[in-house]
Design goal:
By secondary structure, the chain is an alpha/beta fold. Helices cover 39% and strands 21% of the residues. The strands form 3 sheets. It has a 6-stranded mixed β-sheet with strand order 5-6-7-3-8-9, sandwiched between helices. It has a 3-stranded antiparallel β-sheet with strand order 2-1-4, with helices on one face. It has a 3-stranded antiparallel β-sheet with strand order 11-10-12, covered by helices on one side.
Length: 411
């Protein structure tokens, strides 16, 4: 169990978090939602003791472990994928040492009924439970199962971490967190670098996770499939909703409608009483009655309808040139990398207005096809023909690595 009590955080005159309070129990899987800048990642850092709050407390039992999937990674590039993954089990040695020390101390003591001795017994029980969860005798099998679930192939296990892109390195970090099975698993956008098969696998894994899961995601389907509770951060305040994301949307809209109706009714009642007070104040015989009514009116707790954030980010693009019916025609495209055949005799056509997705497991040639369409790779055989007036735009998987920061313009 972990509880947050009246967490507050301020930056100058801006309040980012105010009175944030909630409690999570074992096997709860909660999603934290809210607009960008609402304070979701900041709240994660406070929970994981990487940042201090101005007010409030974070409370959890002794020997309560946390795992936080961060967006910045630091790996030893010389390690293989398997070596880096198994590095997460360094906790096993620490726990075994603590168990040995406590056992030695208990063997030397005779005050079996004392509070301090009972505390040692409780601590030893917790450490043994944690060690059983990590299952040190099954480390290799566990690593293999998690890595394969996240899309790695067996031949990838002996490759250097430095050979993989940032997205794949993020999967290694996620594998390490899942393998250690912390009491609280904090996941910040865990699906950003996963394909469909890996996302489905992760959903199933988290569905039976023995600890607490708290995650941030913009993937509504992922939130629906994983979460049984939703927390929303809005204007510094946190609201809690039972159920998945779809239920949260329905419940939130119902609450808004009820609140808006109650506000309208109260405003009518206030206006009516104010008119009565004004009439009575005009008569000397009813002045005291009017003053009494005014005092009662002043004591009424006013219903406030929160200001909903309806601001949207707007982009305006110049009108594109008119194209023909066929935008792209691909005929008999094949591509190999050495002895490995990736694509063979691929044929398809894209017509104006169509929205098409390339789906498939990792290594099946999706990115290779995209790179051939954008002329970053040449096909071994076959042709690609664009229609008239077709302009091409490409957002790459590693787009952040391709941006020239010197050309960024800030206004």
């Amino acid at each position: 169990m972990i509880s947050l009590n009246n967490i507050g955080l301020h930056f100058g005159d801006r309040t980012l978090l105010s009175g944030v309070t909630f409690m999570l129990n074992r096997r709860e899987r909660a999603g934290l939602v809210g607009k960008n800048g609402a304070g979701k990642s900041t709240l994660f850092r406070i929970i994981s003791n990487q940042q201090s709050a101005d007010e409030g407390t974070v409370e959890h039992p002794k020997h309560f472990s946390m795992g936080y999937l961060k967006q910045d990674l630091h790996f030893d590039g010389n390690n293989t994928v398997m070596e880096e993954t198994k590095a997460c089990f360094s906790e096993v040695g620490i726990i075994e040492k603590e168990i040995s020390e406590i056992t030695d101390e208990m063997n030397e003591r005779t005050d079996y009924e004392s509070d301090s001795y009972m505390e040692l017994v409780e601590e030893l029980t917790d450490l043994n439970a944690r060690l059983d969860l990590l299952a040190p005798g099954k480390i290799d099998a566990q690593c293999e199962r998690i890595l394969k679930g996240l899309g790695f192939k067996e031949e990838d296990f002996i490759k250097k971490v430095s050979q993989f892109s940032g997205g794949w390195q993020m999967r290694i970090e996620l594998a390490k967190l899942l393998l250690t099975q912390p009491d609280l698993l904090l996941l910040d956008e865990p699906t950003n670098h996963l394909d469909i098969e890996s996302i489905i696998w992760l959903e199933e894994y988290l569905g039976s996770y023995p600890g607490i899961v708290l995650l941030i995601s913009h993937d509504k389907q992922f939130l629906n499939n994983v979460c049984n509770r939703i927390f929303e951060l809005e204007w510094g305040k946190l609201s809690s909703y039972a159920g998945n994301y779809d239920k949260y949307i329905v419940e939130k809209e119902m609450q808004r409608e009820v609140l808006a109706s109650a506000y309208v009714n109260q405003q009518k009642q206030i206006a009516e009483k104010e008119r009565t007070i004004s009439r009575f104040m005009a008569k000397a015989t009813k002045t005291s009655m009017a003053q009494s009514m005014q005092k009662q009116l002043d004591k009424i707790e006013r219903i406030e309808v929160p200001e909903f954030d309806t601001k949207a980010f707007k982009l305006k693009f110049p009108e594109a040139a008119r194209t023909g019916r066929v935008v792209l025609e691909v005929k008999n495209i094949s591509k190999s990398f050495g002895p490995k055949l990736v694509l063979k005799d691929v044929n398809f056509a894209v017509e104006k207005g169509e929205k098409i997705a390339f789906v498939g497991q990792n290594g099946m040639g999706k990115t290779t096809m995209a790179k051939m369409i954008t002329a970053q790779l040449m096909a071994d055989s076959g042709t690609m023909n664009f229609g008239s007036n077709v302009a091409l735009g490409y957002y790459a998987q590693n787009q952040s690595e391709l941006i020239d920061v010197k050309k960024q313009c800030w206004r």
